[in-house]
Amino acid sequence: EDQVTQSPEALRLQEGESSSLNCSYTVSGLRGLFWYRQDPGKGPEFLFTLYSAGEEKEKERLKATLTKKESFLHITAPKPEDSATYLCAVQAAEKLVFGKGTKLTVNP
Amino acid sequence: NAGVMQNPRHLVRRRGQEARLRCSPMKGHSHVYWYRQLPEEGLKFMVYLQKENIIDESGMPKERFSAEFPKEGPSILRIQQVVRGDSAAYFCASSQRDRGGNEQYFGPGTRLTVT
Predict the structure, then answer these.
(1) N-terminal to C-terminal alpha carbon distance within chain B
(2) N or C: which terminus of chain B carries fewer CB neighbours within 10 A?
(3) Residue B1: pLDDT band by 50, 70, 90 thresholds?
(4) Chain A residues with CB-CB distance to B91 below 8 A
(5) What is the rounded distance in angstroms from the CA atom of residue A106 to the CA atom of residue B12?
(6) Cβ <8 Å between B100 and A31
(7) Residues near B5 by Cβ (< 8 Å), separated by ≥ 6?
(8) By the 8 A CB rule, do A106 and A43 touch?
(9) Cis, peptide link before residue B39, omega less than 30° from 0
(10) What is the mean pLDDT of residues B44-71?
(11) What is the rounded distance in angstroms from the CA atom of residue B43 to the CA atom of residue B14?
(12) What's the pLDDT at B96?
């Protein structure tokens, strides 16, 4: 069964304190791994797609990496506006299978 | 605004009533997906549609739920005879399905409350 596990469930950082979020997955035939950001009361906002092990993508203070079993979302020098829930998903056939997310809080 | 649009944003229904949720995909997108998010749960796939076709409905409850994406107009997710357990946020996503990937762009969601 296709499965995505994210850790930690919640993470509190001080502004400027870098860290990483983990996404472990099992899927038969990875066609893509996706990172989204979700703010309270809003829909998920697309961040990155990774297709193969070794691939990396960056956007501002975020960097996503991919291995054969997991993906990391690295947050460098976060700011309070980076506070959100970060969702990881894998493509299984035509649908996305999501993890439960990591709720990130960045304190000023 | 070229994003995915959903309406209504909030919907309150009494047990036994019908709920209709609408989704207009991003301009140029012909693939629509519906997901449900329960409190403290992850997003769960419900159904995948293209114009006039249901491609994958493996995540849809067998009874009371139906979806359509007509040739003209928005995609509709319909829930008949709602129960309290249907209370959730329902998100629609759309994609182009190009470049071999499947970036899905989500709407703001419809929050359904069943009283």
Answers:
(1) 33
(2) N
(3) low
(4) 43-44
(5) 34
(6) yes
(7) B23, B24, B74, B107
(8) no
(9) no
(10) 95
(11) 24
(12) 84
- Choose among B6, B43, B107: nearest Cβ to A98: B43
Number of neighbouring beta carbons within 10 Å of residue A41: 10
Burial letters for A84-100: b for 16+ Cβ neighbours within 10 Å, e otherwise? bbbbbbbbbbbbbbbbb
Q: What confidence tens digit (pLDDT) does each residue in A52-64 have?
A: 999 999 999 999 9
Amino acid residing at A90: V
**pLDDT tens digits, residue range A33-46?**
999 999 999 999 99
The two structure tokens encoding residue B90: 């329902």
Interface test with B, best of A33, A48, A55, A96 (most B CBs within 10 A): A96
